[in-house]
Amino acid sequence: MGMDFSTLRSLITRYCVGEETWVDSRTIYIGHKAPPPGTEAFIQQRYPDNRITSSKYTFWNFVPKNMFEQFRRVANFYFLIIFLVQLIIDTPTSPVTSGLPLFFVITVTAIKQGYEDWLRHKADNSINKCPVHVVDNGRVTRKQSRNLRVGDVVFVKEDETFPCDLVLLSTSRPDGTCFVTTASLDGESSHKTYYAVQDTKAYITEEEVDSIHATIECEQPQPDLYKFVGRIHVYMDSEPVSRPLGSENLLLRGATLKNTEHIYAVVIYTGMETKMALNYQSKSQKRSAVEKSMNSYLVVYLFILISKALVNTLLKYAWQAAPERDEPWFNQRTEAERQRHIVIRAFTDFLAFMVLFNYIIPVSMYVTVEMQKFLGSYFLMWDDDMLDPELGERAVVNTSDLNEELGQVEYVFTDKTGTLTENNMEFIECCIGGSVYVPHAICNGQVMSGAGMDMIDTSPGPSARDQEELFFRALCLCHTVQVKEEETVDGIKLGIHQGKSTSFYISSSPDEVALVEGMKKLGFTYLRLKDSHMEILNRNDEIERFELLEVLTFDSVRRRMSVIVRAASGELFLFCKGADSSIFPRVVSGKKDEVKARVERNAVEGLRTLCVAYRRLSAQQYAEVCGLLSEARLALQDRDKRLADAYDRIETELILLGATAVEDRLQEKAADTIESLHKAGMKVWVLTGDKMETATATCYASKLFRRTTVILELTTKRTEEQSLHDVLFDLSRTVLRPDLSSDLGEFSDFGLIIDGATLSAVLRPEESNCGNYKDIFLEICRNCSAVLCCRMAPLQKAQIVKLIKMSKEHPITLAIGDGANDVSMILEAHVGIGIMGKEGRQAVRNSDYALPKFKHLKKLLLVHGHYYYIRISQLVQYFFYKNVVFMFPQFLYQFFCGFSQQPLYDTTYLTLYNISFTSLPILAYSLLEQHISTDILKKDPSLYRDIGRNCLLRWPTFVYWTLLGVYEAVVMFFGAYFLFDNTTFTSNGQLMTSNTQMMFGNWTFGTLVFTVLVFTVTFKLALDTHYWTWINHFVIWGSLLFYVVFSLLWGGIIWPFLNYQRMYYVFMQMLASGPAWLSIILLTTACLVPDVAKSVLWRALWPSTTEKIQVLAGKRYRSSLHLADRLYQGHLADFTPLTSLRSGLEQDQHSRWQQEDQHSRPTWCGPCASALPRTSP
């Protein structure tokens, strides 16, 4: 049979969802009804169900998938290979020695990840099985959420959450609107207005809704919460009617219905295709500098391990070259094994040595680091100093992988509005035609006098009066503010015009609320939007109604919004408000110079300004406007671009009315925080979309710029006068040439201001004769203590962060912001911080850490970041150090056992050394250590410089720790060897030392070395501990006690499950000898003395700022103990009153500190000295 395969292919393409040729749009049949005959073919497409899956694993794939992910880590994979080698070939140690630690690490991680995924499964099931109401055959039925299908008509009641993405068909409100909160999506708690389709909003019963005959064409799912493009075709008796669909018609999954009794809506996107699910995508993995250092050290130790194994393999065959030193008989090698090729034997021996020395790679370090980061993050979340009582919010840790990175920050990029400022707007004044109006200028109908400004006049000229009222009406109409009404005790809803404060304004923009409230103070009150009519109450207590015809919404590119309204007289107005840079070029008349002067003056004072303009429209012009908007809104392709073009053509030939000024106050302690960051050596950049004058005033108020700062401008205004090339080279000469800098002052402090347009030119790919502007720009920025970037788009913020992040120094960057426009730079920076502000929670959701206020950044970096870095750097160095001390005696031992791969330590000691004997002390240290008190770190930000540039994990420090481990290993091994070198044979053939009368075999020798090892590394950590708590005491001394008790039990009892027990009675026999005790004490002391001597010598000759403070803290503590002792003995008469005593001590402390080197540490005040911690000197 001959079948046309092209026909088969087209059928498959047409009917199989996964093979659709059209990928840009989809067609939905409302109620699954076929369109009328002759319109189009009815193709019932298949879409995913409404099941949400946030879990990572299933019951069947958990083990293989989790194992695959864990063994992708280099350390885990390495130990797996070692374990397999031990199973395959004859190795000197049992496979248990590698398998048990690996099994412990893998099991703990798998349990943690499995538990987290089980919680996700539970959450998914609770959502997927939630009941929803669906209109089916003219009645409402219930089904589980997971069974919803695209095209179903859903019935949602007030306060219910939308189960999927829906297009609104009709509501219980006569105007076809509903109110929704999207707090779970973007954190905005304000009520947003959504609109039903114009031709279906009249269908308000189940039967009527079920009779709707329509199809929807819309774009395929995409994650942008604020974008939706589609159109609906409603089939009437005649031709179908097409209407545009936008984001104002789309109800998103996770949003909640408010102040609306019920709605009917059709399902558009389900399950993992909903916008909320598409935003589940994980952020790119960020790695800290400490983690990179760990990996570098791991490579070095892997090289050391391979070198050890290679050297021992070569020496073994060199040793066995002589006939009398051939393979010993007791190794029980078969003749076939003896006759194997030398290459195979050498390779097998090499692998055996690798297994013998493999413990130099600390696999348990990764588990300890993970636990330290996870548990350490709770100290940040529990910190009461970072609790905001007003918001009731604490700091939130979204990822603990970057804790130590908080102690390495070099550049801070911050947003302005809502981050440095409160984003709590207050209307200050407005300027109408050059006259300034202040809300508080009227008191009981009387005009208050003002200094040097025009006030509201109760009897202005007719033209001025008309202009004034038109301005007030413009601000009362040009907005998206909603009126929230509350019921009184008798159940009657009262409006603002009735004189009772039972209503208030809500909006997603604080600026709009401030402007509407400001107009209310000036006599024009916005009442409500009802039946597409906006009502305002004028100063004569008369209600005016304007029909709202069109809203040209605000966007960050246009930086303006407009409304088209029809007055009761039939006149058509277009009112427009926006930034001065977007309004002035479109103005054709009005007092532009006067208004512009006032705008610039207000901007210099740090006020946020907006300009207001209008245009009268004729009926013909309005018809043209409607045509432009309708054509753009019905487009499925490039709708946003077409709408932008339409708005641009409509918002022209404007008449300027005036401008407004709104104040956004600085957040509490914002200036103090920025000053502290400067003292800590960090460079602070402000990235904002505001105009330059406003942002500059905020920078001066927040102490980013000081009065002595030399301001350098790289702005459009300057590049219009000079070429960009010349401006850049002028600035570079200013900041780099010492002769020019000296003219400006001995220590010139530069600040740079750049705007978005100039930045685009700088970052533009270099042209043939333009040179590399980017490098010059970076060089200028490096020599500026602060940089202000104004008029920045969100993408430009991320570009700036990436530019600094990828520069040759590779500095650690931090970005902090509160709004959706800050998400890009938060994701780009090494550390991203979200502020719990008033612009939604998108920044918080996408950040690594979330803070209630900007002021909390100070403690986050200067205290928590400092502690995190100190703790984890010590943890990493200590782990490598203690494993060198552990394994180097094993290497030396091979020179005394004929390179026979004989282990020095018992298998149990090999297994438990990193898991039990030495793990808890370093974990407790890495969680609790405070080398300097919290108060000192906050009061002296310069201490942050001491740990900058990853100084504690640099190669010299790493080499010192490694050499210290080698030294201690040599002392332990050869100390034990020479103390017991005088030996004789006993009657039963055992070796016995003549000077100790102790039976001395290889296991006794190894146990002695291991005992010294455990005590040495534990005492080393105790000596490094400055902050002692009962937990430190418990784990340090408890670990030593556990080792002794375990060794006594392990060697003192015959365990029935062991085939052989080579450690039987070894430990007790060793401890029964007095010289063995002396050896342990002497060798432990000999190991620790050089490190202690080095620390004392360095502290005396070249003390760091931190060490100076620790010395002063010790003196302060001892003097307080002496004082308390004298008081206790009753010598009260010897003392002055406590207040004068405190003052004297403070003065004495202050004078001592003033004698210190001013360049090495800052001067301290008395109260700061009294806050010094109780630390050991």
TrEMBL record:
This is Phospholipid-transporting ATPase. InterPro entries: ATPase_P-typ_cyto_dom_N, ATPase_P-typ_P_site, ATPase_P-typ_TM_dom_sf, ATPase_P-typ_transduc_dom_A_sf, ATPase_P-type_domA, HAD-like_sf, HAD_sf, P-type_ATPase_IV. Residues 844-1104 form the P-type ATPase C-terminal domain. ATP binds at D415, K416, T417, E512, F554, K577, R608, T688, G689, D690, R791, K797, N821, D822. The active site is at D415 (4-aspartylphosphate intermediate). Pfam families: Cation_ATPase (PF13246), E1-E2_ATPase (PF00122), PhoLip_ATPase_C (PF16212), PhoLip_ATPase_N (PF16209). Its EC number is 7.6.2.1.
